[in-house]
C-alpha cells in the first residue's frame, strides 16, 4: 500500500498508527476493501483500502476504465462525464473535486475524452450529460446526504441510468485486476492542457434548463403568483441551480436560507445533512419562512437529487410531507398536466408511471382509475431509471417515477431522481393550486378522496453489527421451525410473504418472486389479512434496517383516523415482534 501511495496526509495517518502499534485501527483501515456495488462506492474518507482516498479512487477508476474499454469499441471517441459535489476531508486531504480530477486523469492517460465539470453540480446533471452528449458512462463523486466524513463514487451507464448487475460485478473484478497505479496516475496537473479534457458546465447549464421547461405548463400563473417560497440547499450544491430553475419557469426566486445556501463540507447547522430526517433539518427554513411570510419550504439534500417539502397550515403549524405524500401530489399533477395537453384518448395506452416496491401504491390507484400503466420496481432509482429507458425505447411515455425516500423523476431528460426539477415543478403546482384557493395539503386530501386513502409509515433502526442483522432476518425465515415464516405479528394475521433475498413469494403459483432477487441484501415483505403491507430491508449505503408500511382503502372510505390507528398498531407490533429492538440492541431513529 505504501509503495502505491503518494498522498502524504493519508500516509502520515497510517505511519502514526504503525508507530503506536494500534492494531485495531489498522484493522479498520485495511481489514477489507470497499465493495463496489450497483451504488458504486460509499464510505468514509480516510486512509486504507476500506476508505475513500486518492489511491482507492485511482484503483477504482482504473478498473472502471478497463471495463468500459471491454464494453465500448468507441470509448475513445465518445468519452465519459465526471461531476463532483463540495465534500472535503481536511485531515486525509480528500475532497470530491480532487477525486474527480484523479478519475479524469486516469481516463485521459488512456486516451479517453473526459467531460469534467469545472465546478460543483447537482448529481442529476451527470446522467443528463451522459444521454445529452451520448457518452459511454458517467461518474458522480458524492455521498449525497450521508454524514460529513463520507464520500462516494456513483456510476451511470450509457443509457443515463445507474448501473445494475452484472456491471457491478464486472467493474469490481476489473478493479481487483488493476490495483497498481498506472504511470502518471498521481499527476492530475497533466489534464489541464490536454485536448481530451472538456468542460460541459456552460452547455449543460443552458440545455438542462431548456429541457425542464417542457414540464412548465402555467407560465402566466407563475409570473403573477403571490405565493412565496423558501429554499435550502443544506450546505450543498443546490442553491444556484434551484434559483435558475425558478427563473426558467418565470417564478420569482425563492428566499434562500442564508446560513445554508453556500456549500460547506462541515454542514455546521445540522446534525445530519438529510432533509428526510424531518423538522430538525428545517429549523432555519421555518424561521426564515415566518420572517418573510413564505408558506412553502423546498429543501434539497446536499447533492440536490432529493426534495423535501413543508407547508404552513391554517393552524400555524408546519406540515412536512412524506415522500409518499409528495409522490401522490406530483403524480396527480404531472398526469393532470399531461391529460390537459393530450386530448387523444388513445395516447393514454402508452403512458406509464413507476415507483419502487416499498413506496406507496397511490400511483397504482390513480392508474387504475385513469387508464394509464403503473409498474413497480425493486428499491432504488437504478431500477426505475433502467426500466424507464426500456419503456421509452419502446415508444412509451414515462411521465413520472418516485420512491418514498423523497426521490422524484419528473422529467424524462434525467433518468434518475432530480431535486432541482422536482422543486420547480412543485412550486408551479402550488402556484396553480393557490389560484383555486387550495393548499398542497387540501389537494392531497382531494387526491385521497378520489383515489382512496393510502396511509403510510416508514422508519428505521440503526445497527452497526452485520451479524445481528443477519440473525434478525434468519429468525424471520425460521420463525416456527426451519424454513417457516411468521403466521402472525401480534394480533395481525400474515396472509402473504415475499422474500426478495431468497426469491420466495407465497402469492405466486410456483412460489417464485417476479421481481429480481439479490442474496447480498435483505428484504422481506409481509401482507396482512387487514390489507396492510409491511417491508423490512437493509440499506445499501447506511447501517440501517428500514421498514415501510401502508394501509390502503377504496375511494369513499373516509375514516382516516381509524386507518391511522390501525396502521400505528400494526407498526408497533412489527417493531415489537419482528425487530425486537431491546433483544437485538437496535438504536431507534430519533428526530
TrEMBL record:
GO CC, one annotated term: cytoplasm
Principal place of residence: cytoplasm
Keywords: Carbohydrate metabolism, Cytoplasm, Glucose metabolism, Isomerase, Magnesium, Metal-binding, Phosphoprotein
Cofactor dependence: Mg(2+)
Subcellular location: Cytoplasm
InterPro entries hit by this protein: A-D-PHexomutase_a/b/a-I (IPR005844), A-D-PHexomutase_a/b/a-I/II/III (IPR016055), A-D-PHexomutase_a/b/a-II (IPR005845), A-D-PHexomutase_a/b/a-III (IPR005846), A-D-PHexomutase_C_sf (IPR036900), A-D-PHexomutase_CS (IPR016066), Alpha-D-phosphohexomutase_SF (IPR005841)
Domain Alpha-D-phosphohexomutase alpha/beta/alpha: 34-180, 207-312, 351-451
Any one GO molecular-function label of the UniProt entry: magnesium ion binding
Entry's Gene Ontology BP terms: glucose metabolic process; purine ribonucleoside salvage
Family to which this protein belongs: Belongs to the phosphohexose mutase family.
PANTHER family: PHOSPHOMANNOMUTASE 45A (PTHR45745), PHOSPHOPENTOMUTASE (PTHR45745:SF3)
Protein name as annotated: PGM2 protein
Organism this protein belongs to: Brachypteracias leptosomus
Gene (UniProt): Pgm2
